[in-house]
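Reviewer 2 asked us to include a model.

Predict the structure of this chain.
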Amino acid sequence: MKIRNGFVSNSSSSSFVLCFKKKPKNVSEIKEIIWPREENIFSDSGFLSVWQAAVSVFEQISDKKPLTIKDMERFFEGSWDVNNEVEAIIGGKPNYDAPEDVWQKYYKELHKKTKKEAKKLAKEFMKEHKKHKMFSVGYSDHDGPFNSTMEHGDVFSNIEHVRFSHH
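Predicted model (structure tokens):
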């Protein structure tokens, strides 16, 4: 048996798809769209300036094109929620000691149904947000207090968005 001495990390990361009416041209526009009345963000994860947050968002989207339906399919396909939902539909995982062919069949079916569900969800999402320009930003609590607050601090509550947890 191996025993680990020292710090063990359980870090996570998340992508956020932010829905803008038009692509923001600068940091000030992002601040006004996402945090129009706030100067600081306070959360259980920490405290930060909305200007610092706006700079971070702008740096991640400024040279990007809006997301496409294929981009959204990839986000939904990699989503823990979608995978867990599909897993429940197909009846859960085989026993850990099941033969390899049972596991291969399971993963093939899981992949096929997850892809199908992701395609359906992406199509619905794009239809609901057809008047928006969508961009993704990402944060990991492993990258320090700022990123942890951006990931876990509910900082995008003033803008329509969806969070994809990658744990």
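The chain has a mean pLDDT of 89. The first strand starts at residue 13 and ends at 20. We have added this to the supplementary material.
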